[in-house]
Design goal:
alpha+beta; 38% helix; 25% strand; extended
């Protein structure tokens, strides 16, 4: 290709320099032709380099002389290339399915191929050992992108020669059985040893059940022989059983040596006192430590319940069952949990233990997540119940304080004391609101918010909170959209995050508040949360403080968890923020690097009003509406149903002072009994939601059957959302959350009467 380019350049230069136009044109045409030929050659070369043929020829350099059969397989399972060893064993199987090749070794090759290729797509490679008639076969596959997969078949025990007179190669007898002991496959070495086909392991062994590394007697064509049994149970319940011939040293209890070290099961042999006598390769990898002659199991792992020393002692004395225990390794660099089963054995009168280890890290992680979820749910229920009871108490406290304030003016000596009571009652109500925010049961009053307006009004307060050492930097993105949220609660979340950022920068720094539109075309998964696709307003609060260590990052939203000193924080701030954002329908995430700073990101769904809301035109009210006889002076008859006597007494006095006639009832049955009087005229039901016996919505439905025009005011210390579906079925009803003031109650009743 390059020779054509250089020749073209050599002809082009004379063509440009020769003054004769005819000769110059000839040189130019010749050089152009050579350039065109070079371009064609270049295109063909690129096409060849991108072809599967070139890909196979390139890889053939590496695998052609490999002694193990190697295949290239496309995504459809079709063999596109095989090396010399594969061609010698299986013949011309190119363009055929890999299923046909593996059918000789596996009863269900489709499942094997599907399972390994799926794992290879995730981890780039996968491997599995299977038992065949001729021994162990190791299947390994590598994902090579769009070209498909490379499959390699490696014999762990040599195959029987294809020559009829050739001797049987040396191999270890082995079999594959199901969980019930039925033999599924036995290799040639075992068949030669027994001289027949074995259908069940009880036809082979005389001393069932099998013991790990135990010595067992088997029936052979030459009589009974003693072998050491190595067993591996797969996840599907299938049992791989290897029979190791025993020499005189092994029959006297000597070490199993290399075979023990290569076992596919992690095993440790212990003395009666817990000292490590031997450990195979897998066990050493799991324990993460080099085991020496004087190493004890208690030095390698620690128990999550009882001490490891006590457990080992009981197992050596035979006082425990084979129930496995979960332990944690003492390796400080990683969290590894192991499931350990101890089996007591006696050899030549000496007691020892065999420990079988299984990696239980993933199991413990899932268990910890479940326990954390249960704990959060329990604390949430507790917070909701405590908040309900406190709201009843605060309603009575603030209500009676309001009544006293009506009889005292600012010049009264008691006015200041009453004001302090009222203010502290409001502070207590704010604390209860935080508890409800954590349990996601507080009452939100969502409205359409423009975040730049919210930040503008809040920035003055935030600057005062930050002080002189820390600066606030607010950045707004382009084309921002409104969101639906409770303004007061959203401001509380931002203040909590900014205060935390300030406390993380003891020497000063900068807090950055950023807003931008985030569009997700697909679902986004992070921290076990799935954010549906759509448009979100992103709010980031970042600082340049000390950061949060990685091992504490997952706990920052837990209630009462704090890294501050005693008396500097309650640990409710971030859990409250988490509850508010979740109840608003959003998401909150945290990123942090120790020593570099922390960033909290809030995602709130963009509010997109429906066309009916945009096109709605307010209609003029009718010029005259006939007023109810009982409502002409905004005074009416109120049926007050409340099981808390202090709250009921305060509410009755407040409504009576406003000129209403108040009928009191302590529960639903009493209220319904009063309504049996047909001459009684009632304008409004004011009722608690949660009461002994029938709850508020239940008795109101019964009462409205005979009095459909009565208005309803529901009051409750729980959130409105907890019974929103029931309230939606009741016409002319409104909700008043506890704690409420005298004015809140009277205004809500006045509005219902005037409606």
């Amino acid at each position: 290709m390059w020779i054509f380019v250089w020749l073209g350049l050599g002809l082009l230069i004379p063509g440009l320099l020769i003054p004769n136009s005819t000769i110059s044109l000839g040189f130019t045409i010749s050089s152009t032709t050579l350039f065109a030929v070079a371009l064609v050659v270049m295109g063909l070369n690129r096409k060849y380099l991108a072809s599967a043929e070139h890909f196979h020829e390139s890889l053939d350099v590496f695998v052609h002389n490999d002694s193990a059969p190697t295949f290239f397989v496309n995504d459809n399972g079709e063999i596109t290339y095989l090396n010399y060893a594969a061609r010698a064993r299986f013949g011309e199987v190119e363009q055929k399915s890999l299923v046909l090749v593996l059918a000789e070794y596996s009863a269900n090759p489709v499942n094997v191929i599907f399972r390994l290729q799926n794992q290879a797509r995730q981890d780039r490679a996968a491997r599995e050992d299977i038992v065949t008639e001729h021994g162990h076969l190791r299947l390994s596959t590598h994902h090579i992108g769009s070209q498909g997969f490379v499959w390699r078949l490696e014999d762990l025990v040599e195959r029987r020669s294809s020559t009829p007179d050739a001797p049987e190669p040396v191999s270890v007898p082995m079999l594959l059985a199901n969980a019930d002991g039925r033999v599924l496959e036995m290799n040639g070495a075992l068949h030669q040893l027994t001289g027949c086909d074995i259908s069940h392991i009880d036809r082979l062994f005389h001393d069932l059940p099998l013991r790990p590394q135990g010595l067992h007697q088997i029936t052979t064509q030459n009589g009974r022989e003693t072998v050491r049994v190595l067993e591996h149970i797969r996840g599907s319940g299938r049992r791989e059983i290897v029979l190791v011939p025993c020499d005189e040293a092994e029959l006297t209890g000597a070490s199993t040596g290399r075979l023990f070290d290569e076992l596919p099961v992690a095993m440790v042999k212990l003395s009666a006192h817990g000292g490590v006598l031997n450990a195979n390769k897998l066990a050493r990898q799991l324990l993460g430590l080099k085991v020496g002659g004087d190493t004890r199991l208690s030095d390698l792992v620690r128990g999550l319940g009882r001490p490891v020393r006590d457990w080992v002692h009981d197992a050596a004395e035979g006082r425990t069952t084979n129930k496995p225990e979960i332990v944690q390794t003492c390796d400080q660099t990683r969290d590894v949990f192991l499931q350990v089963s101890l089996t007591r054995i006696v050899e030549d009168g000496e007691t020892s233990l065999i420990a079988v280890l299984n990696d239980a890290t993933e199991l413990k992680t899932l268990e910890a997540q479940f326990v954390q979820s249960q704990k959060m749910q329990a604390i949430g229920q507790l917070a909701g119940g405590v908040a309900h009871d406190f709201n009843n108490l605060l309603t009575a406290i603030s209500g009676y304080c309001d009544l006293l304030l009506l009889r005292h003016d600012e010049g009264d000596p008691d006015f200041g004391d009453l004001t302090q009571i009222n203010q502290n009652a409001n502070r207590a109500a704010s604390l209860v609101s935080q508890l409800l925010a954590f349990s996601r049961k507080q009452n939100l009053q969502p409205e359409t918010l423009e975040l730049p307006d919210v930040f503008s009004e809040l920035s003055h307060l935030l600057n005062r909170l930050l002080g002189e050492k820390v600066t606030l930097n607010v950045k707004h993105g382009q084309d921002l959209s409104p969101v639906r949220a409770d303004r007061r609660q959203l401001e509380q979340v931002l203040m909590n995050l900014v205060v935390n950022a300030r406390d993380a920068m003891t020497d000063g720094g900068e807090v950055v508040l950023e807003t931008e539109i985030l569009s997700l075309s697909d679902d986004f998964e992070r921290d076990r949360a799935v954010v549906p696709k759509g448009r979100y307003m992103s709010i980031k609060v970042s600082d340049t403080g000390m950061g949060i260590p990685a091992d504490r990052l997952a706990k920052v939203f837990e209630p009462f968890y704090t890294t501050k000193k005693s008396g500097e924080g309650t640990g409710l701030g971030l859990s409250m923020a988490y509850g508010i954002i979740k109840q608003t329908g959003g998401f909150i995430f945290v990123d942090s690097v120790a020593g570099q700073g922390t960033s909290f990101q809030i995602l709130l769904p963009v509010f997109e009003p429906e066309a009916t809301e945009l096109d709605a035109v307010p209609t003029a009210s009718p010029p005259f509406v006939a007023a109810r006889p009982t409502s002409t002076k905004e005074e009416g008859v109120i049926l007050l149903v409340e099981d808390e006597a202090p709250v009921r007494a305060f509410a009755a006095r407040a409504l009576t002072m406003r000129g209403h006639t108040v009928l009191e009832a302590g529960d639903a049955d009493e209220a319904l009994s009063m309504l049996e009087d047909d001459d009684l005229c009632v304008d409004v039901f004011v009722t608690d939601v949660i009461m002994p016996g029938k709850d508020g919505p239940t008795w109101v439905r019964e009462a409205l059957l005979s009095r459909p025009d009565v208005k309803v005011v529901f009051v409750s210390g729980y959130a409105e959302e907890s019974f929103a579906d029931q309230q939606a079925d009741i016409a002319n009803s409104v909700f008043l959350p506890k704690p409420f003031s005298l004015t809140d109650l009277t205004e809500k009743v006045r509005a219902q009467i005037a409606a």
